[in-house]
Records
---
Amino acid sequence: MSKIVTPYNDSRTKKEQVEEMFDNIAHRYDFLNHLLSLGVDIRWRKKAVKYIGTIQPKKILDVASGTGDFAFEALVLNPQKVTGFDLSEGMMNYGRIKAQKQNVSDIVEFVKGDSELMPFKDDSYDAITVGFGVRNFEHLEEGLKEMYRVLRPGGKVAILEASSPPNTIIRALYGLYFNNIVPMVGRLFSKDVRAYNYLPESVKAFPQGFEFIKICENIGFRNVKWQPLTFGVCAFYTMEK
């Protein structure tokens, strides 16, 4: 069982705190996300979309979608429908604006809800993506079970998640950046001071690598694999139902 780390450390549930945090930073999220990742997050998402593209998915679910970067990247696969699913209405509102600007509102939809209780039928999606969101689940296993439930047999899942580099020197340099520079830049551009301190804390507490693979296998996923990206600062997990 993974340790529950919350953004504000108060008496509310993690879901409530995560929803408030992302509502607070929604107006700066895309800018800071690309800035703090030095833009390499775009390449990570392209790699993940290429993986699910091997089954030519027509219905794609993007869990913890936020402003929809993963959902919009998936449009290269020519799906019939992409559903962005998230707790934060504030984040999804920016996603809806992007969908309107790209004239794809009929394909990309955004639905508010809890990852542990999704309002979708069993076996209803061909593929699922999650970009840096599984560590925000309050109960990790419950969220993964719901993903498994709504994925059709033979469907694929691509998960990107921040991780700690295995190399000692790179890990030390990355730790300096992640624990000091990221919160500092976050404070400069965001009104929510806690949000960018929560980021390194949540990554540290999250089960990584083979530990996360074991959890996914216990849920029922098969062919679960893990690939470190960009010196291991990002973990790319793939699996099937």
---
Amino acid sequence: MPSIFVFDAYGTLLDVHAAIARHRAEAGPEADRLSDIWRTKQLEYSWTLTLAGHYVDFWTLTQRALDYALERVPSVDKKLKSRLLEAYFKLGAFPDALPTLRALKAKGHKTGILSNGSPAMLKGALDAAGLAGDLDAVLSVDALKMFKPRPEVYALVTDRFECTAADVTFVSSNRWDVMAGASVGFRTCWINRAGMPDEYPDFPPERVLADLNALLTVG
């Protein structure tokens, strides 16, 4: 029976470390450390601003997080900044992203994205990755001016598809995102690519999958 599958974008469909991967040789031996700090601060800024009742778009936070990461990892040449940002704007997708979306569409399912990303950066990344044509909706928190995991953000999905939360299978590689989806009543799939330990026991995922390919057995 056709269902609604809604994905997180960054880290689930799009590889957030693809930007540094394109410039690994230039970044040097601490490239991975830089990328980890960049991603951590990007999310931290979104959470702290939302908790404080403020909003700055995700692309601006991405730039600020990179500035911080470059200060923390001085071995990486700051002249790489513009090229890293350009690469992030056109991130590559995980190899299983496009085949999974196309297989779901072929089965008659609806597909969408719910993301912290700004509309412009989502368009840039999805177009570059070739995913845009296989999505029925691309939903950005920018419409509400607040970030995940606020429950209001997840209501964008039920409003857009005119459905109940129980009609939605929400897919994310971020365990905190899965927690928030479960808390509003979504069916949830945690894509645990890195084999991380579970957390948030009050809001467990319905399924834990090693990659997106396994999603085709759901529903």
---
Amino acid sequence: MFIEQPAVYLRWIYPNALWRMNPGERAVYLTFDDGPIPEATPFILDTLERFGARATFFMVGDNVRKYPHLMHEVLIRGHRIGNHTFNHIGGYCLGTSDYMQNVEQADALLKTNLFRPPRGWMRLAQYHMLRKQGYKVVMWDVVTRDYSRLLTADDVLRNVQRFTRPGSIITFHDSLKSIDKLKSALPRALQWLAQQGYEFRVFE
């Protein structure tokens, strides 16, 4: 198993989550987790606009509380938003009731049917409750690992180039851990994806 791609068993655990979109279409789905923050999100928005790319931002509710103008800017620029809990809470840290309260606290600000669990994990009961309440759980096909202190911007770009395939859901982060690498890696990744003929899409 590569860290950059999810293990097969995870797809079995959450079988109705979105891991990859239609492999028969030359399209990718860019996603950004953990924002919005002023140190990262504006640069990402400007870079996406340069390449005519749309993306989905999975936002932490407390960041939206602090920077509501950034959420509105994401929407104004034609991107989608998703719920990433209010406090970036891992599912195994809370019982189902408390976890869902945290999700709903974020949704009071976000108003979205898209959800991605922080760190990609949640209890099965939480997963089923999210589905029952109408959330579309979005996972990923490629993790760029832009957050890793062990990787360079060139490594992040290589992860995109090595693992992307038609229908890939690609995960970046609009976070302090990622932004220094993304200032170099993101424009080059978008340019490479466009040169490969990929269309940039968002979730319905």
